Protein backbone atom coordinates (compact mmCIF):
# COMPACT_ATOMS: atom_id res chain seq x y z
CA UNK A 1 0.00 0.00 0.00
CA UNK A 2 2.88 2.35 0.65
CA UNK A 3 3.50 4.52 -2.34
CA UNK A 4 0.26 3.54 -4.06
CA UNK A 5 -1.40 6.51 -5.66
CA UNK A 6 -4.46 5.02 -7.28
CA UNK A 7 -6.84 2.21 -6.42
CA UNK A 8 -9.37 0.83 -8.88
CA UNK A 9 -12.19 -1.00 -7.13
CA UNK A 10 -13.66 -3.60 -9.48
CA UNK A 11 -17.19 -4.71 -8.62
CA UNK A 12 -17.96 -1.97 -6.10
CA UNK A 13 -21.68 -1.78 -5.34
CA UNK A 14 -23.88 1.30 -5.12
CA UNK A 15 -25.77 -0.47 -2.29
CA UNK A 16 -24.59 0.98 1.06
CA UNK A 17 -25.33 -2.37 2.75
CA UNK A 18 -22.67 -4.14 0.66
CA UNK A 19 -19.11 -4.53 2.01
CA UNK A 20 -17.65 -3.08 -1.19
CA UNK A 21 -19.55 0.16 -0.62
CA UNK A 22 -18.28 0.38 2.96
CA UNK A 23 -14.70 -0.13 1.78
CA UNK A 24 -15.22 2.44 -0.97
CA UNK A 25 -16.52 5.02 1.51
CA UNK A 26 -13.50 4.42 3.74
CA UNK A 27 -10.99 4.68 0.88
CA UNK A 28 -12.63 7.90 -0.33
CA UNK A 29 -12.46 9.42 3.14
CA UNK A 30 -9.75 11.82 4.20
CA UNK A 31 -8.03 8.98 6.08
CA UNK A 32 -6.40 7.67 2.90
CA UNK A 33 -4.12 9.20 0.30
CA UNK A 34 -5.45 7.10 -2.58
CA UNK A 35 -7.11 8.30 -5.75
CA UNK A 36 -10.05 5.90 -5.88
CA UNK A 37 -11.74 4.79 -9.10
CA UNK A 38 -14.83 2.60 -9.34
CA UNK A 39 -15.30 -0.06 -12.01
CA UNK A 40 -18.86 -1.30 -12.39
CA UNK A 41 -20.51 -1.47 -15.83
CA UNK A 42 -23.96 -1.43 -14.20
CA UNK A 43 -23.54 1.91 -12.39
CA UNK A 44 -22.85 5.43 -13.58
CA UNK A 45 -21.95 6.87 -10.18
CA UNK A 46 -21.24 5.61 -6.67
CA UNK A 47 -20.68 7.86 -3.65
CA UNK A 48 -20.75 10.86 -5.96
CA UNK A 49 -17.89 9.55 -8.08
CA UNK A 50 -18.06 8.28 -11.65
CA UNK A 51 -18.03 4.55 -12.41
CA UNK A 52 -16.15 3.14 -15.36
CA UNK A 53 -17.31 0.07 -17.29
CA UNK A 54 -13.84 -1.56 -17.43
CA UNK A 55 -10.37 -1.09 -15.99
CA UNK A 56 -9.22 0.14 -19.40
CA UNK A 57 -11.68 3.04 -19.09
CA UNK A 58 -10.19 4.34 -15.82
CA UNK A 59 -8.48 7.67 -16.68
CA UNK A 60 -5.25 6.92 -14.78
CA UNK A 61 -3.24 3.75 -14.26
CA UNK A 62 -4.19 2.32 -10.88
CA UNK A 63 -1.40 0.99 -8.69
CA UNK A 64 -3.79 -1.40 -6.92
CA UNK A 65 -6.71 -3.25 -8.46
CA UNK A 66 -9.02 -4.20 -5.57
CA UNK A 67 -11.52 -6.86 -6.64
CA UNK A 68 -15.04 -7.53 -5.31
CA UNK A 69 -16.15 -10.14 -7.84
CA UNK A 70 -16.96 -13.86 -7.85
CA UNK A 71 -13.92 -16.19 -7.64
CA UNK A 72 -14.51 -17.43 -11.20
CA UNK A 73 -14.14 -13.82 -12.45
CA UNK A 74 -10.76 -13.20 -10.82
CA UNK A 75 -8.53 -14.54 -13.61
CA UNK A 76 -10.20 -12.26 -16.15
CA UNK A 77 -9.82 -9.25 -13.86
CA UNK A 78 -6.16 -10.19 -13.30
CA UNK A 79 -5.64 -10.13 -17.07
CA UNK A 80 -7.23 -6.67 -17.20
CA UNK A 81 -5.02 -5.51 -14.32
CA UNK A 82 -1.94 -6.67 -16.22
CA UNK A 83 -3.14 -4.94 -19.39
CA UNK A 84 -3.55 -1.56 -17.67
CA UNK A 85 -0.17 -1.76 -15.92
CA UNK A 86 -1.30 -2.14 -12.32
CA UNK A 87 1.36 -3.03 -9.74
CA UNK A 88 -0.83 -5.01 -7.32
CA UNK A 89 -3.76 -7.39 -7.77
CA UNK A 90 -5.83 -7.49 -4.57
CA UNK A 91 -8.73 -9.93 -4.04
CA UNK A 92 -10.97 -9.13 -1.08
CA UNK A 93 -11.85 -11.31 1.91
CA UNK A 94 -13.07 -14.75 0.92
CA UNK A 95 -11.68 -14.54 -2.60
CA UNK A 96 -8.92 -16.79 -3.90
CA UNK A 97 -7.91 -17.98 -7.36
CA UNK A 98 -4.72 -19.83 -8.23
CA UNK A 99 -5.29 -18.99 -11.89
CA UNK A 100 -5.57 -15.25 -11.16
CA UNK A 101 -2.47 -15.40 -8.97
CA UNK A 102 -0.51 -17.11 -11.75
CA UNK A 103 -1.60 -14.52 -14.32
CA UNK A 104 -0.63 -11.64 -12.04
CA UNK A 105 2.65 -13.07 -10.74
CA UNK A 106 3.87 -14.05 -14.20
CA UNK A 107 3.32 -10.43 -15.28
CA UNK A 108 5.26 -9.10 -12.28
CA UNK A 109 2.36 -7.90 -10.14
CA UNK A 110 2.24 -8.29 -6.38
CA UNK A 111 -0.71 -10.43 -5.32
CA UNK A 112 -2.83 -10.20 -2.18
CA UNK A 113 -5.81 -12.51 -1.73
CA UNK A 114 -8.37 -13.09 0.99
CA UNK A 115 -7.57 -9.75 2.64
CA UNK A 116 -9.57 -6.54 2.96
CA UNK A 117 -7.83 -3.39 1.78
CA UNK A 118 -9.77 -1.29 4.29
CA UNK A 119 -8.85 -3.51 7.22
CA UNK A 120 -5.19 -3.67 6.21
CA UNK A 121 -5.00 0.10 5.69
CA UNK A 122 -6.69 0.72 9.04
CA UNK A 123 -4.41 -1.78 10.76
CA UNK A 124 -1.31 0.10 9.63
CA UNK A 125 -2.71 3.60 10.04
CA UNK A 126 -4.56 3.42 13.36
CA UNK A 127 -8.07 3.36 11.92
CA UNK A 128 -9.48 0.10 13.26
CA UNK A 129 -11.89 2.07 15.43
CA UNK A 130 -13.70 3.11 12.23
CA UNK A 131 -15.01 -0.45 11.92
CA UNK A 132 -16.57 -0.25 15.37
CA UNK A 133 -13.76 -1.78 17.39
CA UNK A 134 -10.54 -0.45 18.83
CA UNK A 135 -9.09 -2.84 21.35
CA UNK A 136 -5.53 -1.73 20.74
CA UNK A 137 -4.68 -5.38 20.17
CA UNK A 138 -4.79 -7.14 16.83
CA UNK A 139 -5.47 -10.75 17.71
CA UNK A 140 -8.05 -13.38 16.89
CA UNK A 141 -8.29 -14.58 20.48
CA UNK A 142 -10.36 -13.01 23.23
CA UNK A 143 -8.58 -11.66 26.26
CA UNK A 144 -9.26 -13.46 29.53
Number of strands: 7
Structural class: alpha/beta
Strand content: 15-25%
Give the oligomeric state.
single chain
Q: Which topology does CATH recognise?
A: Rossmann fold
Instruction: Indicate the CATH class.
Output: Alpha Beta
- Whole-number radius of gyration? 15 Å
Overall mean confidence score, pLDDT: 86
Shape: globular
Topology:
Blueprint lengths: L5 E5 L8 H10 L6 E5 L5 E2 L2 E4 L11 E4 L6 H11 L3 E4 L6 H9 L3 E3 L4 H9 L19
Parallel strand pairs: 1-2, 1-5, 2-4, 5-6, 6-7
Antiparallel strand pairs: 3-4
Features:
7-stranded mixed sheet, 4 helices, 7 strands
Can you offer a commentary on this structure?
The protein is of the alpha/beta class. It has one domain: NAD(P)-binding Rossmann-like Domain (Rossmann fold, 3-Layer(aba) Sandwich), CATH 3.40.50. The chain is built from four helices and seven strands, in the order βαββββαβαβα. It has a seven-stranded mixed beta sheet with strand order 3-4-2-1-5-6-7, with helices on both faces. Helix 2 packs parallel to helix 3. The N and C termini lie far apart (34 Å).
